[in-house]
Structures are given as structure tokens and as C-alpha cells.
Amino acid sequence: MQRRGKFDYILLETTGLADPGAVASMFWVDSELGSDIYLDGIVSVVDAKHGLQHLTEEKPEGLINEASRQVALADLIIINKTDLVSEEELNKVRTSVRSINGLVKILETQRSRVDLSNVLDLHAFDSLSGVSLQKKLEHVKTTHAHLDKAIITVTFEVPGNIKEENLNLFIQNLLWEKNVKDKTGCTMDVIRLKGLVSIQGKSHQVIVQGVHELYDLEETSVAWKEGEKRTNRLVLIGRSLDKEIIKEVFIATVREERGNS
């Protein structure tokens, strides 16, 4: 690392039980810090033969299935060893992955053979992902858990402009204070957050990114067109998520008038 200018990319492989979010947070740095290293994206590999067993494994109360968490945090999923399973088995793996992370891109391969152009330059954590994210958000749907308290994807859309300070309050209540609960009183645990929003006073769409307690807002290169209906689309991945409650809290928070103090 002391030989500056010699590295085009750094691929960091974690252990099978690692939490990618904790590792990613070390590299997801503000551009203002002047770091030469930036987080491009999180890639997870799912074994087509044994992946379903790991993804559906039930854990003791309070613990998150490690495989499910890795899928939830991923920007790209590579389903490997597809030649070792039937189409029916492969489809079950696809369905399980999609039920956890409705936003992720999926590649299928054998013997881990993947074109590097599909793995590198994902730009999953910067404003360059704004255009591709806009297209993805239009097709993402809320998923349903295969197991109780399993990780799912929730998405919703709210029209209009919102104040940045109110958006920050909503995100901080959700990620930091963790005071948003479902109908049973369980705290909603958000693992990954993505979205495009319309902030008052900004002419371009703003991308929202969140991993565990860490989040960021960044203006994209995508400008709102004159006469275009401004809207806010969010996708949340996590446990005990209730779409209607989250949407209600979002609307109540972003539309609340706040003083200048």
C-alpha cells in the first residue's frame, strides 16, 4: 500500500461469517476527507448447491443469519456452481435471494467464472449510481419473509419535495435511535437503505445510502426536469420491517414543520 499509484482496484475478501457492513463502513469515507480509496460495492457469492440451506437456517432469538445478512448487504450476488443443481433447485435459490434483497443484481456462473467488468466499477456507493438506481427503484417490490423475523425488502414512494433536516431526522430515528417498531412492538432493524429523494432547494435528485447506522446523502447528476413530478422512493432491507408503518412515519416526519432554533 506504500507504493502509490500501483493499484487500480482492491478486492477485499472477508471470512464466511463476517459482517460485510462493518468492513464496508471502514472504506465508505466522505470524499472531503481526500482518501484515494473509496467503496465501490459489496459482492456476495452464493453456493447454488448448499446456499439455500444456509439462507434458511434458523438462528437463536436475537441473532441474524450470517448468510442472509451478507445477501442483504450485497450490491451484486454471484450464484456459483449452477451446474450442480436442477433448474427447480436453482429457482428456489433465486427466489430466496430475491426475498431478502429485492434490489440486488444477480449473476449466475459455474466454477466462479465471471467477467470482471460485471464485478468492478459498480459505483454502488456514489452519486454515479443515480441513473441506474432510478431504473431499479421503478421495478423493486416489497418482498415477504420465508421465515419468521427473516430479512426482507420493503419499498415505498411518497410524492413531493421534502426538507433535508426532516429526512435526516427520519433516518436517524430509524438507524440510530431505533425507535420505529412494528405492530408487535419489535424494533425494526434496517441493514441496508437506498433511495432517491427530492430535497427542497436542490435541482438534482439526491441519493440516500445507508449501511447499519452509517448513512449519507449526495446530490446526483440527474436533474429534475421542468414540470416533472417530484417524488421520493426508498428501499429498506432488514428485519421486522412493516412497510405501512415506515411509510406513515416517513410522511409524518418529512412533512412536520420545524422551528429555526
Helix/strand layout:
Elements: H1 20-27, E1 43-47, H2 51-55, H3 66-73, E2 76-80, H4 87-100, E3 105-108, H5 130-137, E4 152-159, H6 164-177, E5 189-197, E6 204-211, E7 214-223, E8 231-239, H7 243-254
Parallel strand pairs: 1-2, 2-3
Antiparallel strand pairs: 4-8, 5-6, 5-8, 6-7
Helix pairs in contact: 6-7
> What is the radius of gyration computed over CA atoms, rounded to a whole number of angstroms?
19 Å
For the biggest sheet, the summary is: 5 strands, antiparallel
> What is the CATH topology classification name of the largest domain?
Hypothetical Protein Yjia, Chain: A,domain 2
Number of H/I helices? 7
In the predicted model, the low-confidence regions spanning at least 5 consecutive residues are none
Would you count the extended β strands for me?
Answer: 8
Kindly report the average pLDDT value.
85
Task: Outline the structure in words.
26% of the residues lie in helices and 22% in strands. It has 261 residues and is α/β, with parallel strands linked by helices. It has two domains: 20-118, Rossmann fold (3-Layer(aba) Sandwich), CATH 3.40.50; 127-254, CobW-like, C-terminal domain (Hypothetical Protein Yjia, Chain: A,domain 2), CATH 3.30.1220.10. The strands form two sheets. A five-stranded antiparallel beta sheet has the order 4-8-5-6-7, with helices on both faces. The chain starts with 19 loop residues before the first helix and ends in a 7-residue tail after the last helix. InterPro entries: CobW-likC_sf, CobW-like_C, CobW/HypB/UreG_nucleotide-bd, P-loop_NTPase, Zinc-reg_GTPase_activator. Belongs to the SIMIBI class G3E GTPase family. ZNG1 subfamily.
